[in-house]
Amino acid sequence: MAENDAMPTLPKKCGPYISSVTSRGMNLVIRGVVLFFIGVFLALVLNLLQIQRNVTLFPPDVITSIFSSAWWVPPCCGTASALIGLLYPCMDRHLGEPHKFKREWSSVMRCVAVFVGINHASAKVDFANNIQLSLTLAALSIGLWWTFDRSRSGFGLGVGIAFLATLVSQLLVYNGVYQYTSPDFLYVRSWLPCIFFAGGITMGNIGRQLAMYECKVIAEKSHED
């Protein structure tokens, strides 16, 4: 009986998927680093599409990094991706509504593929006018949320992220950091909030999956012990 009483109990909050690491702070750091590099990679690939089609224009003196992207774009997108990916599971815990809809890596990868497709459509598909393009991308973005998320918190965070990111983009263009060709929504393109919304949903799904995967591995390790 004494030995059973001395057995350690499994903590209520699951730790990181690296079994030798148990602190919650290190858990967040590991997930944040993974999300950061995912965001950097997506930023390089997707920004390349926009530059090739002359949708976004940077001053020649700032095009110094790979894929002809301004040096500050990948780290900024990586940081934003890490914050978004960590915020989604934290919000789920805070609201007491764990997200269980399509929680597997294959679904997450399909979500990423759809997001890349939406960005590709904004750069390469020709529409009669910007309004038609914006409405199409809005429908696709909401369809992405409905297919891979369907949570109220996910939709709310996606809208908030789209609003803040569009506001920041307006300020950057206003100050001459970069510019859009044929702007029709103040200084940017009207479809830009749709891209930010879809990107927020995508990084939120990745963040949720990483958090769930860590919990699963810790639970399996505890069962083996």
TrEMBL record:
GO terms for biological process: cellular response to insulin stimulus; cholesterol biosynthetic process; cranial suture morphogenesis; inner ear morphogenesis; middle ear morphogenesis; negative regulation of fatty acid biosynthetic process; negative regulation of steroid biosynthetic process; NLS-bearing protein import into nucleus. It comes from the Eukaryota. Keywords: Cholesterol metabolism, Endoplasmic reticulum, Lipid metabolism, Lipid-binding, Membrane, Steroid metabolism, Sterol metabolism, Transmembrane, Transmembrane helix. The chain crosses the membrane at residues 28-49, 69-88, 131-148, 155-174, 186-206. InterPro entries: INSIG_fam. It is a multi-pass membrane protein. Pfam families: INSIG (PF07281). It is found in: Endoplasmic reticulum membrane. GO terms for cellular component: SREBP-SCAP-Insig complex. GO terms for molecular function: oxysterol binding; protein sequestering activity. Mediates feedback control of cholesterol synthesis. Belongs to the INSIG family. This is Insulin-induced gene protein. It comes from Taeniopygia guttata (Zebra finch). The lineage of its organism: Eukaryota, Metazoa, Chordata, Craniata, Vertebrata.
